[in-house]
Design brief:
Blueprint: H1 2-11, H2 13-23, H3 26-30, H4 35-43, H5 45-57, H6 64-94
Helix pairs in contact: 1-2, 2-5, 4-5, 5-6
């Protein structure tokens, strides 16, 4: 089951967060408040899941879990950068 959720997280991270919140307390154990998971859901969904993985598995973000969180941040920011570049190209073509 965790493997399937991990694959789902790469394809649709926001849906994976919703699924994890409904089915378990995995996100709740990693974060002390609901503000950070909510902001993570809106802006950096894969990073939110990676941080929850690190906190539930290790208790802190260090070692290989730090690498996983950094990779998730880069993927999340790459998705935003790619979409901005695509919008800019589309706008330049229409002008």
């Amino acid at each position: 089951m965790p493997f399937l959720v991990g694959c789902l997280a790469l394809l649709a991270p926001r849906f994976a967060i919703i699924l994890v919140v409904i089915v378990s307390d995995y996100i709740g154990r990693a974060y002390q408040t609901t503000l950070w998971p909510l902001l993570g859901f809106l802006f950096l969904p894969l990073t939110t899941l990676a941080y929850a993985l690190a906190m539930n598995a290790r208790g802190s973000v260090e070692g290989i879990y730090l690498a996983i969180v950094v990779l998730a941040v880069l993927i999340d920011l790459g998705i935003f950068g790619g979409s901005a570049r695509k919008r800019r190209r589309r706008r330049d073509r229409t002008e």
